[in-house]
Amino acid sequence: MTQDYRKFLRPEEISRISRLEVKARHIVEGFLSGLHRSPYFGQSVEFVQHREYAQGDDYRRIDWKVWSKTDKYYVKQYEEDTNLRTTLLVDLSESMLFGSGEMTKYEYGCTMAACLSYLLLRQQDSVGLVAFDEAIRSRVESRSKRNHLHALLAAMSNETPAKKTSMFDILSEVAENKARRGMVIIISDLFVERESLFRGLNMLRHRGHDVLLFHVLDDQELDFSYSGTTKFEGMEEMGEIVCDPRSLREGYMEAMEAYLSELRRHCSSNVIDYQTIRTSEHLDAALAHYLNHRIGMRQTVRN
Fold first, then answer.
1. Is residue 287 part of a domain?
2. Strand, helix or coil at 35?
3. Distance of CA 168 to the CA centre of its chain
4. DSSP conformation class of 234
5. I need a surface site. Which of 24, 52, 98, 238 has the fewest CB within 10 A?
6. What percentage of residues in the chain have a pLDDT greater than 70?
7. Are residues 281 and 251 in the same domain?
8. Domain, as residue range, for 276
9. Number of C-beta neighbours around residue 122 at 10 A
10. Which of 17-21, 27-31, 175-179, 259-263 has the lowest mean pLDDT?
11. Rounded distance, CA 186 to CA 60, Å?
């Protein structure tokens, strides 16, 4: 039965995030007017707007008719020049069903994807979706119309997490199918084989895409604060075990921190934006912190 897609985009979240803007650090094809600049001279037939001339703009695109009337320089912009093309990759593997709080990782990830879609469409950017486990389960092509949000939300709500994740196969397929450079946002718990993950991320970067990686984890996965004899049921065909978690906590925490540190190092060295997100965090605060961090990094690069 189809779930209510509106649960992934609640009014309180919209009101809190509506002032945020998604900005990309790298020059990619079709950035938002005034915030992003395309390295291409696209000649889409659909005229969108004028923008005041800025140093570095192609003088051939100055609208001389406007200059004759206003004595100011403005350049013409077309739809191809103003739209950032973003693809959201949302993990549908069985491990995303885990949750010790109000939301499972999948619910949290879908809500995050919904909020980012809302922001991007509000900026007239194009957004597409790939929902995946070991294969692509749903694909929604990129569009920039605001009513496109319904299609994105419906695609997520119609799926139920299952099976394992085949991250390299998914990332390589996305890289192969995206001829134009753009932004790729990955939302996953990243319980995958790390070398295949790194190879897939590197492939996206080598194709010139701006990559954002939201690592969504439950508090218990990060803190492992269980006590007393506990039965752990593995997801994705991992079986089950009964044990005293206190005897395992030290080794578990060391292994988790080693994995997170390796992820951070790899992403940093390959210019991939990485952020660990707890499902207990208020989503608006998590997005505000992260997007402001990106804006700061972008300004540092410019300076």
1. yes
2. coil
3. 17
4. P
5. 52
6. 73
7. yes
8. 5-24+84-302
9. 16
10. 27-31
11. 38
Task: Examine the domain organization and report whether 181 and 264 are in the same domain.
Answer: yes
> Residue 118 is encoded by which pair of tokens?
């809302």
Residues 299/149/134/180 CA torsion (nearest 10 deg):
-50
- Give the integer Cα–Cα distance in Å for 109 and 4: 16
Quote the DSSP letter at residue 46: -
| Residue 192 and residue 123 share a domain | yes
Query: Do 281 and 203 share a structural domain?
Result: yes
Residue type, 64: W
Type of residue numbered 206:
H
Residue 233 φ then ψ, to 5°: -100, 115
In this structure, the answer to whether residues 152 and 18 fall within a common structural domain is yes
Residue 264 counted as domain residue: yes
Report the alpha-carbon angle 275-272-33, nearest 5.
100
Structure tokens at 2: 């189809």
- b/e map of 132-166 (b: 16 or more CB within 10 Å)? bbbebbbebebbbeeebbebbbebbbebebeebbb
Token pair listed for 97 = 């069903």
Provide the token pair at 222: 């990060």
Element (H, E) at 232: strand 230-233
| Least-confidence region, from 113-117, 179-183, 287-291 | 287-291
Looking at 81, 102, 126, which one is the last position of a domain? Answer: 81
DSSP state letter for 47: E
The alpha carbon of 182 is separated from its chain's Cα centroid by a whole number of angstroms, namely 12
Q: HSE-up of 94 (CA within 13 Å, CB side)?
A: 9
Farthest CA pair distance, the chain = 81
